[in-house]
Amino acid sequence: MADARTSSLPDILRDAGLYALVAFGLCIPIVAYRTNAGPTGLELTPRWPLVAAFCAAIFVLRVVQRLILARRDARRALTPSPAQATEAVQGEPDAGQRVSTFGLYAFLGIALTLPVIASLASGGLGPARYWIDLGILILTYVMLGWGLNIVVGLAGLLDLGYVAFYAVGAYCYALLSTTFGLSFWVCLPLAGLFAAAWGMVLGFPVLRLRGDYLAIVTLAFGEIIRLVLINWTDLTGGAAGISSIPRASFFGIPFSADEDGFAARFGLEFDSMHRVVFLYYLILGLALLTNFATLRLRRMPIGRAWEALREDEIACRSLGIDTTTTKLTAFALGAAFAGFAGSFFSVRQGFISPESFTFLESAIILAIVVLGGMGSQVGVAIAAVAMVGGPELLRNLGFLSAVFGEGFDPNEYRLLLFGLAMVAMMVWRPRGLISVRVPSVSLGERRAISGAHVSEGHG
Amino acid sequence: MTVLTPANPKTAERIAVGRDAVLSVVHLTMRFGGLTAVNDLSFEARAGDITALIGPNGAGKTTVFNCITGFYKPTEGMLRLAHADGTVHLLERLPNFAVNRTARVARTFQNIRLFPGMTVLENLLVAQHKPLMRASGFTVLGLLGLAGYRSAETAAIDTAKGWLDRIGLMDRADDPAGALPYGAQRRLEIARAMCTDPVLLCLDEPAAGLNPRESAELNALLRYIRDAHHTSVLLIEHDMSVVMQISDHVVVLDYGCKIADGTPDQVRADPKVVAAYLGVEDEEVERVEAEVGISHGEAGA
């Protein structure tokens, strides 16, 4: 809508009227008649009031939009926008940056106390199970997002098959524990090592590829792992998966009702929720470990080399940085964190199958990283909460059926809303929620760098 | 082999004739398919000198640079780099990044290649990757937060500060490199290359796009690098005010061949150089080409 806008009121009303007319035209075939299977065949129920409501809503929304745009244009006419400047303008810290300093503590506080808050709010540990389970789910994705952030956000390597390493970690724990009876605490580092090794295996052949080609090969790698899991039935159980995977123990003490169990040892009354709360804190710890390692690595030469690689690979080579090993370490470390998360996933579920490791999972994790703002830890956490917690909200929107009629299930619109959110992000925050980059070192006050300067990487 | 580390530039100048070559380019040929970009080029850059590589557009200067810095593998020829301690590296055999890491040849680019989203200081720290990586125990020890890495990082920041002071960017240390004005980006790229502690610094058109005042600053910076850091400099340049003022030695290329080699004054007076730059009468073209040894068929361009 780049046409010259006039902001006189009659003009706005005429424009809005035109919009309402288009909406009316669209509504006639879609909304105006409802077909019911009556006793004598199809019956048409006219719904003209609904059509009128739609048209009126469109009219009002367009008027409001035009008024807002007119005000913005008037304001812009007075102050030139930073986008018009030839050189980047170092402006005020934007909303994203303020969120990132403030949101960090809020997020951490809520994450640490979630089981307490949930059980207080819903009256007891048992009823709080839904919230704690949701917390575990979100934190798993936060951890995966943070892990992928090393590869995509820091090193700028587009990885569409990240879920493969998650699968390697999950199967690693499942197979080692069911075959050799190894405990979770032995398998956790092994799963990370295994996944890192697979990260290297993937890394070697794809090092020469960049951008789109790299993305396609990693996508293929993700699918290959899934197909191997389905077809190697002797080892993985095929599509049936692996069941009765040993549950997590409290560092060797099982969460059981007998006298050797966790509750009896610590003088508590047995509650099956103890295990869930333990799992919650376990994934919280793992996620924080990922975050801590990433933040630490960013201040190390290897982390700076990753970011330099994202900015300009040729300049890196001219400075004596071995881009091969640098890329491999990024792949391997990202994969190791996915391996940890995978082995947590299988100890929590007790059952895994290739179904859990589809491309959609990779896409969601990548979407979390991109929506959050590549390279931003807080952004990724916020995006994970929105992407994983958001759909859960839909389940609780039952009242909407009063508006849209019986049988309306908001959950069915999940992917539609997901797509809308993506489009909205592309329009308003194309570089993610938090697009600023915080320097790894500074002489004076640490100032964030506007996303306009930071490269996304080319592979 | 007489190895010299001239403490005093005057002394160095006096005995310049006997100095060793830091870089010897021997029979370098680079072909891209049917196009011979560099044809049997041989020259030497002496230690402690500023050597300029000049020539008209398309003469193959940047190709020579890319061969020296490992971005191209030469079709034929040898690139021999000698360190002051006598170790010799054959650049054409080293992998790309090792030309900087082990042979200690640093370069800048014709179109500036900074890390625009990283701060000026970070740009200089990335250049000190090798010593920092070693100090951090290849990340493992540094991740545990050992003191060795922290002191190494402080030292690296001090080195960076020294260069920032030298190029006049101290007050912009925490700004993103992409936000600097063009001239400052050029200086920063040179400082970043110097942070890798090179024995040979290769500059690809460092004065391109600079105004006369910035060119003069650049001359001073290059002299400082040569005299105070004892780093030899090899530069490609079109700006003759830079070339003639600061070079100790000039090599002129045309159509991938060397047409002149000597001091700035010798080169300036050379009729072949004048012909290559300004063009001549048709008969003279033929005469000069016969002298240089290229016929029309071979030149191909």
Description:
The complex is a heterodimer of chains A (459) and B (301). The model of chain A is unreliable at 84-93 (pLDDT under 50). Chain A has two domains: 9-74; 102-396, no CATH class. The two termini of chain A are 34 Å apart. Chain A has a two-stranded antiparallel sheet. In chain A, strand 1 and strand 2 (41-46) form a beta hairpin. Chain A has helices at 9-30, 48-78, 95-122, 129-154, 163-180, 184-206, 211-231, 233-236, 262-265, 273-298, 301-311, 313-318, 323-349, 359-372, 377-395, 400-404, 414-428, and strands at residues 33-38, 41-46. Chain A is mostly helical and 459 residues long. Chain A contains 17 helices and two strands. By secondary structure, chain B is α/β, with parallel strands linked by helices. Chain B folds into two domains: 1-104 and 199-301, P-loop containing nucleotide triphosphate hydrolases (Rossmann fold), CATH 3.40.50; 116-197, no CATH class. Helices cover 41% and strands 21% of the residues of chain B. Chain B has helices at residues 9-14, 61-68, 98-101, 120-126, 129-135, 140-143, 147-167, 182-194, 212-229, 240-246, 264-269, 271-278, 282-292, 296-299; strands spanning 21-32, 35-46, 50-54, 76-82, 88-90, 105-107, 200-204, 232-236, 249-254, 257-262. In chain B, the strands form two sheets. In chain B, strands 6-7-8-3-9-10 form a six-stranded mixed sheet, sandwiched between helices. Chain B has a four-stranded antiparallel sheet with strand order 2-1-4-5, covered by helices on one side. In chain B, helix 4 packs parallel to helix 8 and helix 7 (147-167) crosses helix 8 (182-194). The longest helix of chain B is centred in the middle third of the chain and has 21 residues, at 147-167. Chain B is globular. Chains A and B meet through helix 10, helix 11 and helix 12 of A and helix 3, helix 4, helix 5 and helix 7 of B. Chain B: Keywords: Amino-acid transport, ATP-binding, Hydrolase, Nucleotide-binding, Transport. Chain B: Belongs to the ABC transporter superfamily. Chain B: Residues 23-280 form the ABC transporter domain. Chain B: It is an enzyme of class 3 (hydrolase).
